[in-house]
Write a structure and sequence with these properties.
Shape: elongated
Number of strands: 14
Number of helices: 6
Order of helices and strands: EHHEEEEEHEEHEEEEHEHE
Distance between the termini: 45 Å
Radius of gyration: 20 Å
Strand content: 25-35%
Largest sheet: 8 strands, mixed
């Protein structure tokens, strides 16, 4: 049965016309799927569905998303993340030897990253900040399930600095940046593998609004502070003063790492 698939020109060019036509005809595309963006069920027979091709250094994985969540596109990700996703696949809807596979969750061993923006007063200046907290423990790529939370150690290996307090601006981590476009937060970018272009470490399902004060401070300083804490350390705080209090408590417990990174966009 034909599927209601959105297939961008770039995805079609990558997988080839023959594979694309089979997908649209319903030969290789599932009816029911789990959206790779919001993780809720979808049905390509009855609702617009986007084809999203995740590409690593050597591996390509085709996933599906509600068209209202993501447009059809190619997303570059770390090869080890893709390999972990491929190992987790319990079924293959493509023909034997085909390159396109269906992935319900690109990183099944990892929790979803929550991102909150706010202004933080440091050294008598309001600093634009992003606070990243996962919804659950983050496993090291390739680690056995239930092996603990490696979120902060992984970030420290990338150059993030443990912060015992918020008395000073953390060092800049090179190769990372915060992507802001038309006043909205789109992504946090990390260095590509092998000296390649930056790839998304975190990408908003839909661009996130930031306050005018946050955007003005970011444009003035051309830099954004990124704080990261393990699951449950910060929580959703409705006001910036409460967010600051939660950051202070997390830092005092040794559960906070941070860095500064350049602002990309306006």
């Amino acid at each position: 049965m034909p599927r209601m698939l959105d297939l961008s020109d770039e995805v079609r060019a990558e997988i080839g016309d023959e594979e694309a036509d089979r997908l649209l005809a319903g030969e290789n595309a599932p009816g029911a799927y789990d959206c790779t963006s919001c993780r809720t069920p979808g049905d390509s027979e009855h609702e617009r569905t986007s084809t999203v091709l995740f590409v690593g250094d050597e591996t390509a994985v085709l996933a599906f998303a509600h068209a209202t969540c993501l447009p059809s596109q190619i997303v570059e990700v770390a090869e080890e993340q893709l390999q972990g996703a491929v190992r987790s696949i319990t079924g293959d809807t493509g023909e034997a030897g085909g390159a396109a596979r269906t992935v319900p969750d690109l990183a099944p061993e990892q929790a979803v990253l929550g991102v909150t923006s706010g202004l933080v007063l440091i050294e008598n200046e309001l600093q634009p900040a992003l606070v990243v907290e996962p919804t659950g423990p983050i496993a090291r790529p390739g680690a056995a399930p239930g092996g603990g939370d490696d979120f902060l150690p992984l970030l420290i290996e990338q150059g993030f600095t443990p912060v015992p307090n918020l008395n000073g601006v953390p060092p800049t981590v090179h190769g990372w940046s915060v992507l802001l476009a038309m006043g909205q937060l789109h992504a946090i970018l990390q260095p590509g593998t092998g000296g390649g272009p930056q790839v998304a470490w975190w990408q908003a399902h839909q661009p996130l609004q930031v306050t005018e004060g946050w955007r003005s401070a970011a444009n003035k300083l051309q830099s954004v502070l990124l704080f990261a804490a393990p699951a449950g350390a910060i929580g959703r705080q409705p006001r910036e003063d409460l967010l600051r209090d939660a950051l202070d408590r997390s830092a005092a417990r040794g559960q906070l790492v941070a860095c500064a990174m350049p602002l990309a966009g306006t």
